[in-house]
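Archive entry: two folds, one per protein. Generate the first.
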Amino acid sequence: MSPQTWLEKASEEELIEHILNRYHDTHRDQLPELIRLAQRVERVHGSHPECPSGLSAHLETMQAELESHMAKEEQILFPMIVRGISGMARGPISVMRAEHEDHGSALARLDTYTNHLDLPEDACNTWRKLYEQIATFREDLNAHIALENSVLFTRIDGLTT
């Protein structure tokens, strides 16, 4: 079965389980490593004109905001959906959508810190690994947001209209 077919046929509970396992757990693994790598690059290459100074602090802020967001989903929104309380889920869904926009803005700020992930020619392996992992994180977070906004939340909106 293709991923698209699975998404169309999956129940809300299956979608939520997928989101938790594929995205929430993944982000919780990704961000501490990104922060560690960014701190190292900033410490070692702070005098380099293309050093992504401030990147680790931005990633720490993203981690805190994303952790808060995922906790709200896990503790409030997702249990409401699983219990079939669709009408009451509209408020939390609107909050989650607004926070998704904030996450998108935070991702865009990564471009400012990293010069659109454009590495200097003399970048070390740590710097290269950092930018490679940021690209993966960005891809994962965008897919996570799209799955919730375009599939899960749209289904719930359809149930409550």
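Generate the second and append.
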Amino acid sequence: MDLTSYADRLRRELAVAAQGGGEEAVALAGRLAAPLESSVRLILLEALSEAADEITRELAPGSVEVRLRRGDPAFVLTRSPAEHGFDRPPEEEAEAEAPVAAGKDGGTARINFRLPEQLKGQIEEAARQEGLSVNTWLVRAVAATFESAGRRGPRRSAAGGRRYSGWVG
């Protein structure tokens, strides 16, 4: 989705509104339009992200994500397995057979978080090397971290708060 047309439209609307204030206002609007473009793009991205979150709540367990590619947003739809209408691919079948840590009731929950692109790449590579999905790899890594922390107990940081540390292999 190209946001340029929206930013251009706002620039034109600003110029039209400034015409009522005379030549000085038109000149000022022209000087303000360029620096405001990045803010306009950011606000549009925030609106698209909130819209995707609202749609995701309605689609659950499916989801909609907004991903930024070379400065332009793109929507990604993830359907629930029941909506696909076909059997799981072999790699998902292998994951289903592998044990994954679950809560006491065996249920699962969804959490969205942002992380640096470099770290995301490292996680994807580690999951690929183990033949797992990123989600399964992350679940196992977090579970191992808490298991490790539980055996040793939490350590106090210098500031007096709790800090968990450990190694996930």
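Annotation attached to the second fold: The first helix runs from residue 4 to 19. The CA atoms of residues 86 and 115 lie 32 Å apart.
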